[in-house]
Design a protein that fits this description.
heterodimer, A: about 400 residues, alpha/beta, Aspartate Aminotransferase, domain 1, Aspartate Aminotransferase, domain 2, 2 domains, seven-stranded mixed beta sheet, four-stranded antiparallel beta sheet, 15 strands, globular, B: Rossmann fold, SH3 type barrels, 3 domains, six-stranded antiparallel barrel, five-stranded parallel beta sheet
Chain lengths: ~400, ~350
């Protein structure tokens, strides 16, 4: 009885890292130092100079992580602002037509509803043939591609995409929000960074997807260059983004990024693969299973069971996971990502499990058991449809 | 037990959730999102956008999970579209019955079962009584808040699973006091009223927008077809009403009332109220889609019937017919409006009910 009562009071198990990662202790420490530093980085006096040095150190660290000069790093309020700034500066302000992947995040999609949409295949990978045709049909466009998808974790073939863009004189913007803090040696994103494929591209980053704070982001420019700002303000960030920089948050981001580069993501990948096997056993179909993905992400369809039902059933049992997109009211909608992948009905029946950097193996296994019990109950209630496939998307 | 509470964000359902939680049940809150809230929210109707947030706050404060359920498309089809369809047939629908019947007591209730709940509770004012021969529906203690007429279509199987804790409350002041005591922010919130999905104050505007074919003026005629006046649209009329007939009352020297709505000719047919309400031939009413909360009485049953949401009981004899229909013999003549509900009572107990059919 005592044990049961204790179990009921346990904190929920957090498996929604792609929504936001738990704060890393190193990021927290860096932020505390930043919070305690009085002074506006733009001020002339001693306090201002001190704050400025801390900000510039964060800037240098972040830029260096991607092999860039410090001055190519523009701090923003987050990933959405970084994406919007790129669309504005390299798209609208430079008069480029805009093309984007079909599974891009709303930060990109909703900013330019009239953009040309580059299709993806059934696994969520950008269709290079279609991209090439579109590049031929448009004059020096801005192409927006996410390095890794937030719902499925599927990586983009960035080296190929970058080569195509270069060949056709297109400007490439990479939404690296999900990928930047979870890089493995074999990932196309890291390989593309290393071999210079992304030298001419801009990158959008977000602190809280790396284990930093919410409210901090970066637009990394291909080079130190002026651009048309969204917020001219007082000319901060060398005229590229007005407003006093959120010093503590940006310091938190730099620290989180550094920690994330030290993490062995293969450990998470092993746990993730183990979990996927359990979920498939319970009747799930894994999206993007056959292609390169983030090490922490599972996108699982339970045929016939609305995503909302799954989220509720798992939340009641104490597990925080998510579905395609949740609006501000908390209503669960169909996943535009899975729709773009041609998954039809399944777009309303998928949940995303994303392991955080500090995930506990036992929690993942407990989740697997809870998922199995849930699937069993839905099967008994006649909701769950049996699939003939081997549990993997084609 | 694990129990799902349908929460609108108002005082009543919030109190229900808090009460059940206090009694030690595992409460799960759910709020249906019934329509798009991007427009201006309508305060005072159930389930406007801010009400979802209110429900969330209550759940967070009391300490139980709360979910927003997307029922938009289902609500549009099963409630709003059929509401407009009914007007386009010249009927006067009761959308709250359709909503309770479909979205709430079918969809949400099934969801509760799927989530392993043993019951579902709502903030409705009606009593669920465990009788010797099964579960019964009764009028609530607080007669001013009686919602039994709107709930007649609840099946016995649904009723078995449902709980209505507010049916036992002596009055609204008691519920508000309880809300204060439970520390609920919504204690002073105004009550919901009117049709929730009509946001600009006029249901006729909505109906005419959805069914433009019935829009526009037409003639008001007497039973013989003589034109007595003009009207601005048939959706503004209900059988039995005397309002909106302009100077026809004075013109004919008698108080008139609507006896029928002829959709194809867009005519409103009226007759003298005095004559009609004593017309002995107007004592039979036919009902469709009967729901019996007792074993259907093959021989018929003498009982009280209520023909409108706010109206007294009339004495009647009700006999089930083939095809889920029934025939009601009223003791005194009446002009019930097609599409409205006819609900049967024996004392406080709801025996069943059905929807009124047009008599010609």
């Amino acid at each position: 009885m005592v044990q049961q009562a204790a179990a009921m009071q346990q904190a929920p198990v957090y498996l929604d890292a792609n929504a936001t990662e738990p704060l890393r202790p190193a990021a927290r420490d860096a932020m505390l130092a930043g919070l305690d530093q009085v002074g506006n980085p733009a001020s002339v006096h001693a306090a201002g100079r001190k704050a400025r040095i801390m900000l510039e150190e964060a800037r240098r660290q972040i830029a260096a992580s991607f092999g860039r000069e410090a001055d190519s790093c523009v701090f923003t309020s987050g990933g959405t602002e970084a994406d919007t700034l790129a669309l504005h500066a390299f798209g609208h302000a430079e008069g480029r037509p805009i093309l984007m992947g079909a599974t891009e995040h709303d930060a990109i999609r909703r900013a330019v509803p009239e953009a040309g949409i580059i299709p993806v295949d059934g696994q969520g990978v950008i269709d290079r043939t279609a991209l090439e045709e579109m590049l031929e049909a448009h004059e020096a466009p801005l192409v927006c591609i996410m390095a890794a998808n937030n719902e499925t974790g599927v990586h983009a073939p960035l080296r190929e995409v970058a080569a195509l863009c270069r060949r056709h004189g297109a400007f490439l913007h990479v939404d690296a929000v999900q990928a930047a803090g979870r890089m493995r040696e074999q990932d196309d994103f890291l390989l593309a960074l290393k071999d210079g494929s992304l030298e001419g591209a801009s990158l959008a980053l977000s602190a809280h997807k790396m284990g930093g704070p919410k409210g901090s982001g970066v637009l990394l420019l291909p080079e130190d260059r002026p651009l048309s700002p969204l917020l001219p303000g007082g000319g901060q960030e060398r005229g590229r983004r007005g407003g006093t920089p959120a010093l503590a948050s940006h310091m938190g981001m730099a620290a989180a990024l550094e920690e994330s580069r030290r993490q062995d993501w293969n450990i998470l990948a092993v746990l993730r693969d183990e979990l996927e096997a359990v979920m498939v056993q319970a009747g799930a179909i894994i999206m993007g299973h056959g292609v390169a993905r983030l090490p922490n992400t599972v996108s699982a369809v339970l045929p016939g069971v609305p995503a909302q039902m799954q989220l509720m059933a798992l939340d009641i049992e104490g597990y925080c996971v998510s579905a395609g997109s949740a609006c501000s009211s908390g209503k669960v909608s169909r996943s535009h990502v899975l729709e773009a992948m041609g998954q039809g009905e399944a777009a309303g029946q998928a949940i995303r499990v994303s392991l955080p950097w500090n995930v506990v193996a036992d929690d993942v296994r407990a989740f697997g058991r809870a998922y199995g019990l849930m699937a069993q109950r839905f099967a008994e209630r006649g909701l769950l449809k049996k699939t003939s496939s081997c549990g993997r998307s084609q | 037990m694990r129990i799902l509470v349908a929460m609108s964000g108002g005082v009543d359902s919030s109190v229900v959730a808090a009460l059940l939680k206090r009694q030690g049940h595992e409460v799960i809150g759910a709020t249906l999102q019934l329509y798009d809230h991007s427009g201006p929210a309508k305060p005072g109707a159930c389930c406007a956008g801010r009400d979802i947030m209110d429900a969330r706050m209550v759940a967070e404060r009391i300490g139980f999970p709360h979910y927003v359920i997307d029922a938009e498309s289902r609500f549009r089809e099963s409630v709003i579209e059929s509401f407009a369809d009914a007007y386009a047939r010249g009927e006067t629908p009761v959308p709250c019955v359709a909503c309770n019947q479909g979205v709430k007591f079918t969809d949400l209730l099934n969801m509760a079962r799927d989530l392993g709940c043993e019951a579902m509770a709502t903030g409705h004012y009606v009593r669920r009584v465990e009788g010797a021969e099964g579960v019964e529906m009764h009028r609530p203690v607080d007669r001013d808040r009686d919602q039994s007429w709107f709930l007649f279509a609840t099946t016995r199987e649904q009723l078995e699973f449902l709980r209505f804790p507010l049916g036992e409350m002596p009055d609204k002041a008691h519920v508000r006091a309880l809300a204060e005591e439970l520390g609920l922010d919504v204690a002073t919130k105004r009550d919901s009223q009117d049709i929730c999905f009509v946001t600009n104050g006029s249901y006729t505007g909505l109906v005419e927008k959805m069914r433009p074919e019935i829009q526009g003026p037409g003639d008001i005629v007497d039973e013989k077809g003589n034109v007595l006046g003009r009207h601005e649209g048939i959706a503004r009329y209900t059988v039995g009403q005397s309002r909106r007939l302009g100077d026809i009352h004075t013109g004919t020297g008698e108080r008139q009332m609507v006896t029928a709505i002829d959709v194809p000719s867009r005519r409103i047919i009226v007759g003298p109220r005095q004559t009609l309400t004593s017309d002995e031939s107007r004592r039979t009413v036919h009902l469709r889609d009967m729901n019996w909360l007792i074993d259907a009485p093959a021989e018929g049953v003498r009982c009280g019937v209520q023909l409108r949401a706010r109206e007294g009981l009339r004495q009647a004899f009700v006999r089930p017919l083939e095809g889920n229909r029934a025939e009601v013999q009223l003791e005194d003549p009446a002009l019930p409006a097609p599409g409205q509900a006819c609900v049967m009572y024996e004392g406080d107990r709801v025996l069943g009910g059905g929807f009124i059919l047009a008599d010609r």
